[in-house]
Structures are given as structure tokens and as C-alpha cells.
């Protein structure tokens, strides 16, 4: 059975919306150990963040668990979205949550799912690095830290050397990236089950499907219909592979 939940603003306008169909609810009960939570997509008439909940099935294929439309990117909106997702999914909590790294989202995950391990999606980390790092060699180091198996001692040594070589010790962005090292660096995740979300292709693939079906002119109803088509396409792909 499909379920939708929403709340409204003080002037009785739609605030947050979440919807999950019956197949997605069943899939989550089987494959919801790892939950990816992406809200970086805004291609709709109202320029509001679209939330995509996804995971990986037993064939290592991407599975859509549900969608949401955020009123804003506040802690309250993210918390509402996660709390209602858990209610829809019969309170089954994931072991691992993968997000794009938004500060309010990180806080919401820590409050609603305090026992879940929180990781950053490698695709979003790569995009962040690309927009903040101009030097090709330094970019290469970040890619190495993301994916290459190494000990934490080796990671720390290389990080400190890079900070000295590139004069980054006092850079705010550099310090922020180090603070999140346990959520993204391979050295800290080598023994963790991430259901394929340590690679970039999974989140990138979902975004490509949304781009394929959605338009900037879409109303909320058209957007919901479009995202339902995305979920059906993913299921059709599961049957063909």
C-alpha cells in the first residue's frame, strides 16, 4: 500500500511532503540496512529540494525507497522527513545512512537515527572537491583518500604533508573536510558495509534518471508523477538485468 504524508505552513500552504509506494516499502524491509538520503536536486517549478531515498538490493542494483519534497533545507524539515520515513517503514532503522553532507541533514540524522553510522556519498564529495580544489595533484590526493585502502596512520601522515605542501593548515574548507574524515575517507571505512555507496556511480545514476524525466516547469502533481516513473524505470531495469 502506498503512503503519503505532509505538513503545512502557518498560512496553510504545503510545507513538506513524503510518499512511498507499496513495492518500495517491501524493498526497504529487505534491503534497508543502508539508506541513502540525497536532497541536492531542485529541477521543479518551485525550486524546492527533492529528496530521494535509495538503497541497494541483493543483486547490487539501486533500489528506490521513496521520495520527498522539502519546504526548505532546515533542521526541522530534514527531521520531519526522516521521522515520517521511519514511521512509514514500520520503524525499521538503517545500520548505515549515506548523505550528501549538508550540515542540517547531518544534524537531523544524528537526532533521528543516533545509532546509525553516517557516511558521505563519494559522488558528492568528489563534486565538492572539484569545486574547491584547482590543483590537479591535490585533487588526485583527495581521490586517493576516498578510495585507496590504507591505514589511518598513513592517511593522517599524507594529510599533514599535503597541508604543509599546499599551505592549507588555516583554510576553513580544508579543516572542515578533516573534521568529516571518518565519514568519507577509505582509511576509516575499510571494514564498513556501504552497499556500493562508496563509489560515485550509484548517486550519479539516480540523478541522471531524474534529469531524464523531470522539467523545470513541473507542478507538484507532475513532479510526483515524474518521480513515480523514475521508480518504475528502476524496477524495470531490475527485471531485465
From TrEMBL:
Stretches assigned to the MULE transposase domain: 34-128
Native species: Arachis duranensis
Stored InterPro entries: MULE_transposase_dom
Name under which the protein is recorded: Protein FAR-RED ELONGATED HYPOCOTYL 3-like
Top-level lineage group: Eukaryota
Gene name linked to the record: LOC107485325
Lineage: Eukaryota, Viridiplantae, Streptophyta, Embryophyta, Tracheophyta
Amino acid at each position: 500500500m502506498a503512503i503519503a504524508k505532509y505538513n503545512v505552513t502557518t498560512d496553510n500552504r504545503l510545507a513538506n511532503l513524503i510518499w512511498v509506494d507499496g513495492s518500495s516499502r517491501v524493498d526497504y524491509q529487505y534491503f534497508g540496512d543502508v539508506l541513502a538520503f540525497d536532497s541536492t536536486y531542485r529541477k521543479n517549478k518551485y525550486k524546492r529540494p527533492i529528496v530521494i531515498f535509495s538503497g541497494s538490493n541483493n543483486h547490487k542494483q539501486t533500489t528506490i525507497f521513496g521520495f520527498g519534497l522539502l519546504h526548505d533545507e532546515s533542521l526541522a524539515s530534514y527531521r520531519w522527513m526522516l521521522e515520517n520515513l521511519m514511521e512509514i517503514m514500520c520503524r525499521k532503522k538503517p545500520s548505515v545512512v549515506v548523505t550528501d553532507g549538508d550540515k542540517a541533514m547531518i544534524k537531523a540524522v544524528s537526532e533521528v537515527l543516533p545509532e546509525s553510522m553516517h557516511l558521505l556519498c563519494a559522488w558528492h564529495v568528489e563534486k565538492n572537491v572539484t569545486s574547491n580544489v584547482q590543483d590537479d595533484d591535490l585533487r588526485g590526493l583527495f581521490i586517493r583518500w576516498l578510495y585507496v585502502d590504507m591505514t589511518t596512520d598513513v592517511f593522517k601522515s599524507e594529510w599533514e604533508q599535503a597541508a604543509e605542501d599546499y599551505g592549507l593548515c588555516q583554510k576553513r574548507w580544508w579543516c572542515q573536510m578533516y573534521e568529516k574524515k571518518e565519514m568519507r575517507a577509505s582509511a576509516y571505512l575499510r571494514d564498513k558495509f556501504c552497499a556500493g555507496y562508496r563509489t560515485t556511480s550509484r548517486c550519479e545514476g539516480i540523478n541522471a534518471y531524474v534529469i531524464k524525466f523531470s522539467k523545470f516547469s513541473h507542478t507538484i502533481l507532475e513532479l510526483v508523477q515524474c518521480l513515480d516513473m523514475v521508480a518504475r524505470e528502476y524496477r524495470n531495469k531490475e527485471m531485465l538485468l
